[in-house]
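During the second half of the funding period, the structural biology subgroup turned its attention to how the target accommodates small molecules. The most pressing case was zinc ion, which had performed well in the primary screen but for which no bound structure existed. We therefore specified the complex as follows and requested a full 3D prediction, including the ligand pose.
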Amino acid sequence: MRQLVCTGARELQWHEVPQPRLQHDGDAIVRPRAVARCEIDPFLTSGLFPMKAPFAVGHEAVVEIVELADGVSSNSALAVGKLAVVAFQLSCGRCRSCGAGHSGNCDEYPVLSDYGMQPLSGVEYGGMLSDAVRVPHAAAMLCPIPEGLDPVGLASVSDNVLDGYRTVASHLAQRPGSEVLVVSHGSRSISLYAVQTAIALGASSVDFASDDADARSLASKLGAHPIETDFARRQKRYPIVADCGVRGEGLRYAIESTEPEGICHSATYLPGGDLALPVGKLYTLGIQFHIGRAHAVSLLPEVMPLIAERRLRPEEVTTRVVDWEEAPTAWLEDSIKLVVTRD
Ligand SMILES: [Zn+2]
Ligand SMILES: [Zn+2]
């Protein structure tokens, strides 16, 4: 079968690789139908990380179930032919961490065990730009998509949609009707999914601070109030701040913009390494600072009903859709949210 692999910095090629087979009781074999590019993908293919090429690319997907091991079909809502979102992180769904809602750090797998991220984990679990992928723990890792919804629009639900969602959802539940600030400094789609979530879950207003004109324009269309900033000086303080990006100045601006006793939730990934944080300020003002990766298996059952009710419409963030054959070039070109699709 064919699989898209990264063979060097900014080099993608289709390779012929062995077809995956069912190995364990809980397994499924799936055929990716729509694959979205995650905010981390450009860093993985850029050569920034020490590269053990070739590695399989892609980890956000809607897939068609083509084979189920015994013990899955009889025990779950899954069936051959159904479309499902596949969690990008490998998670068993039943260990202590998974049970606590922390499936991204499942006890059964080494840290960063994800599809398409061999440069980070050191392990090749396969990539979604493949003709077939093996999914272990299928009952936990596959979440069927609602009937009638276009898989293209839901391709990013396995990761970046959840990333945006979790920066605001639980905080708005705790402080209903709060004003929300979304700070966007690189992870454009994640910040826009955060905007959608904040509006859907009843924020009284959503401001969107960014130095990126395209992101501000799309945020405005989604119902947020755009603020142009270079992150040097805050506009005001907010009770809930979602920090989405890749730059230290953006993260510092997000903290500066959080009210005393407010909540700043960071989905920021700093590809350049760590940075100094104003911990004294966080302490003195009692700001709750949250940071960490999304937990795909734990969050999917919470987010999918909102999508089914059309309260969340991830397709409105998609800016480019290309055919499967265009993946090797389109994957390396700039766009807010790229989706690669096939029938
Ligand atoms: Zn990702
Ligand atoms: Zn687990």
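Two results from this model are relevant to the next phase. The first helix runs from residue 41 to 46. The chain has two domains: 2-158+295-341, 162-291.
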